[in-house]
Structures are given as structure tokens and as C-alpha cells.
Amino acid sequence: MSDIFAEVEEDLRAERVKKLFQRYGGAMVAAAVLLVLATAGWKGVIWYQGRETARIATSYLSAVEIAGGPAEGRKAAIPVLEQVIAEAHGPAWAGGLLGSDIYRALAQMQLAALRTDGGDKAAGLKLWDAVAADTGADPVLRDAARLQWALHQVDAGDPAQVQAHLAPLLDPANPLHALAEEAQGLLALRQDKKDDARATFKRLSADVTAPQGVRGRAAGLLAQLGE
Which end of the chain has fewer surrounding CB within 10 Å, N or C? Predict the structure, then answer.
């Protein structure tokens, strides 16, 4: 008797499954197809991002090689760097290119140097400021861009703006703090604030954590100031 009940119960379950499939089968199949397509699409996006990021990296390294060559050929690096900057974001549908932010920032830094060396200082300053303001860029590169902007303005730029660019770098924990302090000392010297400059260079010359070049330059400037 228990076998009969078991068979009936099994038939009822089968009938319920049949009715459910008749009612929702199309939707279930559609959902399964969509899941497969979504998974394949996501893998396609990841593959595309990887391929494009690798291509951008190759373009950037090629531009750096050209820029490091003879001066007459450096202009050829400019359009390559501009293309890297333009393409590093990637299309909106791909959600941007993974890992491309660093190449965009590096290309902007390199292009800023080339523009400045070529006489277009305003373009270089604008590019360094763009990197400094880019929240997607590596913090070290953002700080390096601030420092480059300040160093190229320390001799003639607005002192308040130079100081504003240096301020975030002066924390002793910042790896660029010694270079930033050196620039601050040079700014003080330019403004004829010799006591401030002297104090800065004294501190730098005695700072064992500062690069040897910075310490040497600080000592040399102190000598010129009569110390």
C-alpha cells in the first residue's frame, strides 16, 4: 500500500512540475539564456579591457623611448602620448580600462615635460595640474605633478600658488618632502626672505633622510648665504 502512495505522490510531483514548466517554462529558458549571455558578455569586456590596456602600455613605452632619443626626434612622441591620454579612459560601455589610469597620468607627465622643453610652458603647467587633480591617478604621481608645477614656477610664478602646490608635500611622511622643502627655500630666497631660506636649507643639510643631492645643494646655498 505504501508503494501505491509513493507512486501517486511521485505522479503528483511530476504533474506539478509539468504545469509549472508549461506556465513559466519560457521565462525560465529566457532567464537561463540571459544568464549565459551576461556571463559571456562580462568575460568579453574583461578580455577587451586587458587587450586595450596592454596596447596603451605598449604605445606609452614607445613614446618614452622616442622622447629619450635625439632632440630633433622628440616631437614624434607628442602625438603618441596624446593618443594614450585620449584612449586610456576607454569606452563607457566597457566601464573604463582596468589599470589604464597610471598610463594616462604618466603620459600626461611626459607630455608636460616635452611641451615645457619645447617652449610651451603654459601647456606643461596645465597638464601637471590635470594629473594633480585626477583622483583616479596614483597619489605619488599626483604629488610628483604638484612638485613639477611648483619647480617650474618657483622662479617667476605667483608665490601664493607655488606655496599652495607645495603645501601637501611638506609632510615629513611624504617621500617628496625634501624636494618640496628645497623648492620652498628657493621661493623664500626669490622673495628676499633670507632668514626663512637659511632656516630651510639648514634643516635640509642636516636631514639624513633627504637625498644626498638635496643635502649638498642646501649646503651650497647656505655657503652663499654666509653660513
Answer: N
Q: Cell numbers for 45, please give them.
A: 569586456
Give backbone dihedrals phi and psi of 50, rounded to 5 degrees, phi first.
-65, -45
- pLDDT tens digit string along 91-112? 443 444 445 677 888 889 889 9
Q: Which of 142, 162, 154, 148 is nearest to 116 (CA)?
A: 148
H-helix or E-strand spanning residue 210: none
The angle that helices 177-190 and 212-224 make with each other, rounded to 10 degrees, is: 20
d(CA 121, CA 154): 13
Q: Rg of the chain over CA atoms, in angstroms? A: 31
Residues 6 or more apart in contact with residue 209 via CB below 8 angstroms: 178
Query: Average pLDDT of the chain?
Result: 77
pLDDT at 1: 43
Q: Structure pTM?
A: 0.71
CB under 8 Å to 188, separation ≥6 — which residues?
194, 196, 197, 200
**Residue 108 DSSP code:** H
Better-scored residue on pLDDT, 209 or 91: 209
